[in-house]
Design a protein that fits this description.
Distance between the termini: 22 Å
Number of helices: 6
Number of strands: 7
Number of domains: 1
CATH topology: Rossmann fold
Bound molecules: S-adenosylmethionine
Radius of gyration: 15 Å
Structural class: alpha/beta
CATH architecture: 3-Layer(aba) Sandwich
């Protein structure tokens, strides 16, 4: 089980472009390496702030969020044609085995990380597919984002993903955040 779920009443905060300070669209693009046939999932997509950046570059992006209220905010903003809204918990995804070419999560791993969620991700990401995680780090000062005691550090992500059969391709801790790119 992860820490608390982001309050949908604060959804507007997720649309602030100042957030690109901690994970830019260009950085995420390089980490995910999208292509026009890719079937991608944004895990804990919120208002679709990062989902929108991928929509023009892939065949399908599943915007997965456990809160219907978040999808309502996304609908209000406008959902691109290639994006499908999926109301689901990461621990119980409505996808076939190996259905996803890749998946990513931004600032959400601390909310969904559990044995069940990682087992589920190992089931739905195809062999060789990427799982990209960018999240607030427990090693950060906590000047932005959740309090450090509600975060995990890079080591948690690396060992949890490795324990679930992912191979770690890249792992970096920064000032407030960490990045982990894993391959199934
Ligand atoms: C901090 S917000 C980040 C949203 C988005 N990733 C972004 O960076 O703009 C976390 C989102 O993950 C969703 N979430 C939390 N736990 C989840 C879970 N177990 N399964 C699916 N979505 C989850 C929340 O509802 C919320 O919309």
């Amino acid at each position: 089980m992860g820490f608390h779920t982001f309050d949908s009443d604060r959804a507007h905060v997720l649309e602030d472009e100042a957030r690109y300070r901690y994970c830019s669209c260009e950085e995420l693009y390089a980490l995910v390496a999208p292509h026009e046939e890719m079937v991608l999932a944004d895990l804990g997509s919120g208002t679709g702030f990062f989902t929108d950046d991928f929509a023009p570059h892939v065949a399908t992006t599943y915007a997965v969020d456990v809160q219907e209220a978040m999808h309502a905010h996304y609908r209000e903003k406008g959902v691109p044609e290639s994006v499908e809204l999926v109301e689901a918990d990461v621990s119980a995804l409505p996808f076939a085995d190996d259905e996803l070419d890749a998946a990513f999560s931004t600032m959400t791993y601390h909310e969904f990380a559990s044995d069940e969620s990682l087992t589920e991700l190992a089931r739905v990401v195809r062999p060789g597919g990427r799982l990209v995680t960018v999240d607030w780090s427990a090693d950060g000062p906590g000047e932005e984002g959740p309090a450090p005691d509600e975060r995990y550090d890079l080591g948690h992500a690396v060992s949890s993903l490795a324990d679930h059969g992912f191979e770690i391709a890249r792992a970096e801790s920064r000032t407030e955040t960490f990045v982990c790119v894993a391959r199934r």
